[in-house]
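hey so i finally got around to running both of the ones u sent me last week. sorry it took forever, my laptop kept dying halfway thru and i had to restart like 3 times lol. anyway pasting them below in the order u listed, first the sequence line then the structure token line for each. didnt double check formatting much so if smth looks off just lmk and ill redo it

first one:
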Amino acid sequence: MRTSASRTSSDGTLSRWARLVSAGVALALLMTACGARVGPYLGASQGVGGGGGATQGSTDTGPAGTGPVAGPASGPAGPSPAAAAGGGGTPNVAAASQFDFTPQTEAGACQGAAGNTASAPGITPNSVTFGNVSGLTGPLSGSFTQGAQGVQALFDAVDAAGGICGRKLALVTEDDQQNASTNESDVQGLIAKPVFAFAGSTSDADNGGVPDMTKAGIPDFGFAINCIRSESSTYWSPAGGSCYQPQGPGQGPYAVGDGTFALDQQQGYLPKKMAFLAYSIPISAQAAQQFAYVYQHTFGGDVCYQDTSISPVSASLESDVEQMQSNGCQGVYTFMDVTGNSKLLQALQQQNVNLGLVGSTFDSYTPVQIQTAGQSASQKLTIALPFIPLSEHQHMDDMYQSQLKQYVPGAQPSGFGFLAWLAAQMMIYAVLQAGRNPTWASLDNALNGLKNFDDGGAVGPYSPGSHGVAPCTMDVWVQGSDFVRRSPSSGLFCGGQTVQASP
């Protein structure tokens, strides 16, 4: 097994960074977008270490059985030039702003298998095979199963409606055990299988296989946690990447979006003295340090307490709460998972400490967070999201939850799951735009043709070909037994910028 967890991304990374900076692009962060950077697994470009076999946890689900908030989204009006490049006939696809993303519409855009060819790796006349490499097991449990579940639910729904151009959609899922070396081996194995693209991979070790995907030129759809994946030329997402860091000799400082802090400041609840908590896992600690840097240097806040050495198996966080209280902290932002956040919320309640802001990333956007911490302890927990909340019954919100309930019984809706599902929806739309017999080149052309894409109104307008961070965010908080909108009062906040996040 090769171990190249620390290898850098493609040569185009630095030039893209330079273009971003020189253009002065003011891209907001859904601190969710760094939201992926704000889980314990978000931040560094290194893996979490350890071993693991390349094929452990591999499951080939195979083809499934038989059984909006309006936004300024736009896309190619009708069939794009890329569709002709795919050959074999042109699907009838509406502009993205008019497309409803239902399985029936997707299957109906290109019916029957007549004219189908084996046009690209992973494509046969009757099926398209996709790969997914996720951290199904490992140090942090429960966070990374959600991406594969969301994509599988979508594929099952589309297959039940007839597939894409008569082709069934198959998903092969590998468990990287949250280890970058295993991630690399899993990616290599799936490229060789072959698969047409990667769909919804979700892991804190998602940097491991990036060099191989970039070298092969294979598309990768999902939500990146590590910077290296974010910066890859083959990475595509409706919610952008998580962060930037110029690669090569004398690597430059990290840069992230400040959208969440900017929104909190605008709404008047950004504390003047805030604590930052993270696991001892390097990428968790690094993410906390980066956001503490932004809070201090961009917003002039006082970092009243910082603990980046918390063990994932800590019995409680009572000592941290005592220290925050002693230092006069007015708020706290956590870069832990559901378990760590639950311990913090319970310690705050037990010691009767009321803070103006207890913030977390969308790793905690799942009913499991409230169930684990307890409803009373969870009240007012604030989470930054890059999409319209699932509780507001936007068209895509409801479709995701309905498909998950039908095709993956028992799975809980979540932030990571919804973003993987949305990325797969964008992928299917682009595949249709790429023609009856898509190739990687025609798919790439179709994706670059998407401008101000909002994925059915679920996210803010974003052009995937920019390979930047998406511009919009919002806050929800726990009220009663659910997450409800905190701010802004409607829509999404798109007023942040990309800022330096390390010395």
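and the second one:
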Amino acid sequence: MLLGLPRRVWTWSRRNTQTSDVLRTTIQGSLYVGVFASATDQVSLVGLPTDASTVAALEDELGVPVVRCSIGGANTLGALAVGNETGLLVSDRLTDDERATIEEAVKSPIRTLPGRINAAGNCLLVNDYGAIAHPDLPDHAIDVVRDALEVSVERLRIGGMRTVGTAAVATNHGVLCHPKVTDDELDTLEEVLDVRADVGTVNYGSPLIGSGLVANRQGFVAGEQTTGPELGRIEEALGFLG
């Protein structure tokens, strides 16, 4: 689990928090909450089968409206959508009816990511200051990301992983990364996203941060098996202790 992870040294002004009160849950029966839900500072998207009690809990924890929808008929919204204050990017399998459902709640423009690599939530890591992209994302797709989100974009692997949205979670206050991330990768993340970056795990030792965590600047939701020490690392890395 957390034992032996590399540590980035930061100075934080610690406030009182109770990690036991953080929502640890499943979505659609899965610990991989980051696969089934996507969050920005304006809205959260979850799959159609998500029950009303989970929707209410997500709204309470993340402080934003939660929209039940699908993208291309799929309910893995965390894998297929990502956004910031400026825009929302989704897989180009989005149908007209699905777009209409999302547009009712999302104030930002919705754009689709073209090409073979178009699971936007998996292949992009974004906040309001920058975007990290799958290293094989083609130039025309990078242009779409840059235009839609109005940020600079850098291709990168994180801990050897190309699916950067699976390897990390970013907000406007911090980034939590796969424990095998290198120092050079951490430096690039901090430079592009303009926030502190640190390492951790979720769901009792899983390194796939983006699969087991949903976060925005208001709060976060972790997979049901995420431990107390892991929650503490999440709170610290994403700025909830400062």
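quick thing i noticed on the 2nd:
The chain has one domain: 23-237.
anyway thats it, ttyl
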